[in-house]
User: Fold these one by one.
Assistant:
Number 1:
Amino acid sequence: MLYRSGFLVLALGATRVLGALFQGPTEEVLKGSYDVIVVGGGAGGGAMASRLSEDPDIRVLLIEAGSSDITNLNSTVPGLANNLVMSAFDWNFTTTPQAGYNGRSIDYPRGFVLGGSTAINQMLFCRGTVDDYDRWARVTGDEGWSWKSLAPFIFAVDHMTPPVDHHNTTGEFNPVLHKNGPVSISVDSLILDTNTRVLETTQQLPDLFPFNLDYNSGTSVGVAWKQNAILNGHRVTSATSYLAQAMNRKNLDVVVNTRVTKVFPVGTEDGKPVFRGVEFAQTADGPRHTLKATQEVILSAGSLKTPHILMLSGIGDSAHLSSFGIKTIVDLPGVGQNLHDHAFLGNSWTVNSTNTLDDLQRNATAAAEALALWKANATGPLSVAAGSSQFGFVRIPNATAFFQQFGVEDPSAGPSSGHIEHIPTNSYVSTTVPIPAEGHFFAIITAVISPTARGNVTLRSSDPFDAPLINPALLGNDVDLAIMREGVKAARAFVKAPAWSGYIISEFGEFGNATTEDALNEYIRNNSATVDHPVGSVAMGKDESAPLTPDLKVRGTVGLRVVDASAFPFIPSGHTQGPTYILAERAAHLVRADLKK
Ligand SMILES: Cc1cc2nc3c(=O)[nH]c(=O)nc-3n(C[C@H](O)[C@H](O)[C@H](O)COP(=O)(O)OP(=O)(O)OC[C@H]3O[C@@H](n4cnc5c(N)ncnc54)[C@H](O)[C@@H]3O)c2cc1C
Ligand SMILES: *[C@@H]1O[C@H](CO)[C@@H](O)[C@H](O)[C@H]1NC(C)=O
Ligand SMILES: *[C@@H]1O[C@H](CO)[C@@H](O)[C@H](O)[C@H]1NC(C)=O
Ligand SMILES: *[C@@H]1O[C@H](CO)[C@@H](O)[C@H](O)[C@H]1NC(C)=O
Ligand SMILES: *[C@@H]1O[C@H](CO)[C@@H](O)[C@H](O)[C@H]1NC(C)=O
Ligand SMILES: *[C@@H]1O[C@H](CO)[C@@H](O)[C@H](O)[C@H]1NC(C)=O
Ligand SMILES: *[C@@H]1O[C@H](CO)[C@@H](O)[C@H](O)[C@H]1NC(C)=O
Ligand SMILES: *[C@@H]1O[C@H](CO)[C@@H](O)[C@H](O)[C@H]1NC(C)=O
Ligand SMILES: *[C@@H]1O[C@H](CO)[C@@H](O)[C@H](O)[C@H]1NC(C)=O
Ligand SMILES: *[C@@H]1O[C@H](CO)[C@@H](O)[C@H](O)[C@H]1NC(C)=O
Ligand SMILES: *[C@@H]1O[C@H](CO)[C@@H](O)[C@H](O)[C@H]1NC(C)=O
């Protein structure tokens, strides 16, 4: 019910009485007094603003660059998610030419709306694994980031809801693991006839593809039913979950259509600059406004914009900043470094069936029928995300020996994490070659889930309205390329299971020609893209070289933290919205404890 009532408040364009949503920096906002100012209303910022404002004594302002159009049909209908890339909901970033992609630049979507990237993503809900978080604990020297210590925060994020077809979901997840949090999740309704074949494969090839009852238990290896941030056939974002339940609080103001251009010091404490000042504007040449938080500024602008704001504020590598005429206030060379992401590749086969989702992508009549059905009662093929009800994580067999060939240690966090992700999909998938006008397809998306290459986010100019230069170093070395090769080989092994005989016809397009190692490398480099999981660009760590302390404070400053996916020292072996929510849950706890002192 909280979800519904909050949704309604936002949808009607709330006034101060109902929920304090402002369409711009009005006089009321500029005269406001706030203890904490949160910059960015995505996964991290939405959860932070919500959890902090649970305490009525903490006055919170959330500033979001994008709009408050959270009920937009393209965002709400799970199956229309692809309409959001390069739209009014996207920052429209592109990467620098990626050496690992034969010099191609790729689209790099990021949500530009309340809810941030949770409002434009593919909704798959992953927590990460025991080993992912235990590695965070090791590199930060803070046991508080271990799976065991984080458990109360991990279990505070989501709760399971019934799928739209209300089928019996016994055996599709472990209900005791999903009880408490504001983010509603669900498994798919039973629409895809390939589900049965995927599940049969787990019985026929159990060594490589064992069935996993619940990949959110701490061990993600194996094939499992996807859990999606979808409630009753509607997308769930940080805005429709965390924020919706907070919008009626008198101590939370939210201002949209407003970009933070920098943070600035308001004094010094123990010789350190106190970064409680925030500067913002609505347009590149419009007026700049400022506000000062009494306690903290939290940057939650995401892995690309948070390091950008820090550099514009004089926090970063001094040589880099001075080459753009920016005066260094805190010399922190780690800001913008360590950017990494999951490489993505769609591998498609032609199939002996007409019952696939391909027509939704190329037949306007079929697409209109599906939308009409969704509008009638939120069922049908558009009520689920991305054409797959199960997915899986695979470990490369004999990993230690495999990685020794490249002179590196196993890059996965440990045995509970995969090296490769597989997403079996009931339609054609390619980000480079458009869907053919005819034919029906099955695809397996392969992703490098434990990458070793590292890139960076750097300044293009000193104009805050200019995009930064973004280099996620996708397939940036031979190790990551080899992991993707193993992913494609495992995908080929998957469809060799008897379950697929009479269904799979042949590998489609350049995939079918990728029979030698060289041809496979060329196919991978020419066709890979991103799972849209950039992280790590302002990482926490115990070493002085890490830009954040283990409690997420920007090193060398007072009053400034980062709470978003940029803080991850290593990318989790799964999709990143869940880990960002989990990070924010603990961050809110850390901030509230500090504010009490
Ligand atoms: C297309 C796509 C598909 C994805 N699919 C999945 C998936 O299926 N499952 C999954 O788990 N993850 C997925 N992700 C990733 C996931 O959504 C992100 O990892 C997560 O949202 C990161 O949270 P964040 O808080 O770091 O950043 P975001 O959620 O991106 O939030 C950052 C917010 O800050 C705002 N902002 C930025 N700069 C400023 C500024 N200067 N002033 C004010 N506000 C600012 C932005 O507009 C945005 O609202 C996907 C992402 C994309 C883009
Ligand atoms: C949804 O996306 C489609 C395709 O880009 C666009 O034509 C349509 O206007 C969008 N709908 C809304 C409500 O924004
Ligand atoms: C992204 O591109 C779309 C389509 O051109 C545009 O409507 C939108 O305003 C752009 N986003 C930003 C943040 O400029
Ligand atoms: C769902 O299926 C399980 C296992 O088949 C069964 O034990 C249970 O009774 C079923 N639940 C309902 C509500 O039918
Ligand atoms: C497009 O979809 C409609 C409705 O499902 C169907 O009747 C029609 O045959 C399809 N057209 C083609 C070319 O497949
Ligand atoms: C949804 O609407 C369609 C079309 O009216 C109908 O066939 C179907 O039974 C409905 N499903 C549910 C769960 O109400
Ligand atoms: C893994 O190593 C073991 C012994 O070290 C060997 O028997 C086995 O064949 C190897 N498996 C693969 C898939 O290489
Ligand atoms: C960012 O990475 C690129 C590619 O590795 C490198 O050439 C460049 O020097 C880096 N920039 C900074 C400021 O670190
Ligand atoms: C296609 O499937 C039908 C059954 O649906 C089967 O009779 C036929 O042999 C299959 N064709 C191929 C090429 O596998
Ligand atoms: C596959 O290889 C053949 C023979 O070299 C070539 O004719 C064909 O164009 C290639 N197909 C693709 C999709 O690259
Ligand atoms: C891969 O892309 C390059 C251009 O970057 C092109 O020259 C080459 O033919 C492509 N390879 C294949 C197998 O299509």
Note: Residues 1-18 have pLDDT under 50 and may be disordered.
Number 2:
Amino acid sequence: MNLKEMDLQYVLHTYARNYVNFKYGKNATLFDEENKDYIDFTSGIGVVSVGHGNKRLADAICDQAKKIIHISNLYLIEPQALLAKRLVELSGYDMRLFFANSGAEANEGAIKIARKYGEVDDEIKRYKIITLKHSFHGRTITALKATGQEAMHTYFGPFPDGFVYAENLEQIPSLIDEKTVAVMIELIQGEGGVEPQDKVAVQELAKFLKQKDILLIVDEVQTGIYRTGELLASNLYEIEPDIITLAKGLGGGVPIGAVMTRLKDIFKPGDHGSTFGGNYLSTRAALEVVNMLEEYKASGKLDQKMIYFEEKLKEIAKGFGDIFVKEVGIGFMRGLRAKSSKLQSQIINKAFDKRVLILKAGRNTVRFLPPLTITKEEIDEGIERFKEALVELTS
Ligand SMILES: *Cc1c(COP(=O)(O)O)cnc(C)c1O
């Protein structure tokens, strides 16, 4: 039985997997079992923010693993406290954090905070949360219901009550009633097609919600940790959310999620918890990732690379106007909108043949989430291969 057969035999078929067997990686380059190189414009769906085989991260993980991996949240966890302090200081927001293990879990924490906020004198006064069509908030039953894509609610019901979907930001005020406690949005919809929200519209919404005492939850699971060029997309949009969630890029591949909130005393001991969340290993890894990226940002290199990458994609959108409608995104969260879903799949498959990895997203988008530390040479090589794929597809 080969590996592919083994996978098909023993692993549940939740993904339409590609059966390449990667053996190791170096920054934005992966090598398969025949030592063929692939340019990775996916970073494991926005996770491997400091690249593959990052020595500084690996050393931090090894060092921590030899001392303590896990001890439980019943005792002080040094790297957890350090990471929380670092994130609060870098964000500029007066908040506290809770650490979980994934994006969906971070969002569950955010929803629990909002629902507790809606309780007054132990009575549920407000519980409704407005989210957006095309949003994505995760795969647990509640996060799935928060996700405003009806196609994803076909099975698994009954779902928890209290989620209301808005077509767009402008529609949100008209959906508010006396039971509304929060609005939850992504500033750039990732899975929904790398769709940035308008900055002024977001700022106006934030102001409006503050007046109404309705919480603003920003799901930064994909946009957070320098993906857009700032620590948080909320910094870029110059807003002050009540609750922010993080996950993907935070641990550089080590599973970690976080919910941060200005409601510093919303939870009392026993209200929320996690066995694994915030353990020594994941918080030590995340601390190293955040420190590395902060230095990288301060050096000016992050912005340089982002601008360079954007130029390359804009050229492609122009040069291949018969396939693409437009170029979208911010920072290292970018997409090219294909003219059809059929084209979208063909582009991704053809790119794979040329050994460049890219992602699918909604609205027929071909999505690029490279490691934030990608080199200029890796960008050039990946773009060259991608162009070859497009030429073959159009000839
Ligand atoms: C990926 C993602 C999630 C879900 O994260 P998991 O770690 O897979 O649970 C939630 N929200 C957004 C915006 C995401 O991109």
Note: Residues 102-104, 107, 136-139, 186, 190-191, 219, 221-222, 247-248 surround pyridoxal-5'-phosphate (CB under 6 Å).
